[in-house]
């Protein structure tokens, strides 16, 4: 029985194809990985398809999906490979985050967090859960890497500061994410119709979080111009294409801020009166921004989120025949429980 995983087999097939296409000339092929996580039905698949120039309708992501793209550096040169991973289900499948990010892929890995701007009450919990789990996993891998390759681990810790100028006034106040991070606010076409004060709070909060993690921030919609901008940023992560230095911080327009170009002084303080801020008890700036944000956009109750955690009850995976059989089996189980309960009561009574 072969012990290779599906990932190893797929990778070997791609490498074999590349060697044959390049005539086996031995020129090194660059490989990078981009992992899309974020809000459920937030538009991750649409962005990936656009980046790969695939004209096909997006399908719901079941759990963890993989595809890849290739791009030639120049004429008669081998094509670089970009591995695209996508986590479905929003925050319901956090355990799967550790599958694509391994010691072997860690140093060429980037993260894209897609947040649905049209659902501001879900925004912070989604962002916090996904980033915390990913960061914890990556930090553990870097520690593990340090035990076998101290130089590589040290280079990774230094690399996370690469987007921040040495004389940037906020260097001591931020904590860059351990791997390159891009935050995309999707469904801007809906968000732009929000009340101006709500838009201001969401924009300032996302700017703070992005700057704190040394991430790039941009808003996306169905607009072709915005999708082209997003595509350029993803291509930079996937193929090392020149990075954009453009910036747009006007809350009345789609935000576009490359990593390292924002500052705490430009972002300003959390959008709350000094008197109200003084009443909030927070240990860190991140916690303060969270409390201010959730004061305006309280997260949905835990019971609501638990209901959506069961994929069997998720409408996007509906299959009439399967669902009917499932409903029948559920009824049979309930009847069995009732009958069992009655029989046990009778036994107890008889004794």
> What order do the helices and strands follow?
HEHEEEHHEHHEHEEHHHHH
Q: Note the overall shape.
A: globular
Q: Any idea of the CATH topology of the domain at 29-271? A: Rossmann fold
The neighbouring-strand order within the major sheet is: 2-3-1-4-5-6-8-7
CA-based gyration radius: 24 Å
N-end to C-end Cα span: 56 Å
Family: Belongs to the dynein light intermediate chain family.
GO molecular function, one term: dynein heavy chain binding
Subcellular location: Cytoplasm, Cytoskeleton, Cilium axoneme; Cytoplasm, Cytoskeleton, Cilium basal body; Cytoplasm, Cytoskeleton, Microtubule organizing center, Centrosome
Protein name: Cytoplasmic dynein 2 light intermediate chain 1
Structural notes for this entry:
The protein is an alpha/beta fold. The chain has a domain at 29-271: Rossmann fold. The chain has twelve helices and eight strands. Strands 2-3-1-4-5-6-8-7 form an eight-stranded mixed β-sheet, sandwiched between helices. It is globular, with a radius of gyration of 24 Å.
Keywords:
351 residues, alpha/beta, Rossmann fold, eight-stranded mixed β-sheet, 12 helices, globular, Dynein_light_int_chain, Cytoplasmic dynein 2 light intermediate chain 1
Protein topology:
Blueprint: H1 6-21, E1 31-38, H2 44-51, E2 64-72, E3 79-87, E4 109-116, H3 120-148, H4 150-159, E5 181-186, H5 188-191, H6 196-212, E6 216-219, H7 224-239, E7 247-248, E8 256-257, H8 264-267, H9 274-279, H10 285-296, H11 302-307, H12 320-350
Parallel strand pairs: 1-3, 1-4, 4-5, 5-6
Antiparallel strand pairs: 2-3, 6-8, 7-8
Helix pairs in contact: 3-4, 6-10
GO biological process, one term: determination of left/right symmetry
Organism: Vombatus ursinus
Region (Disordered): 299-351
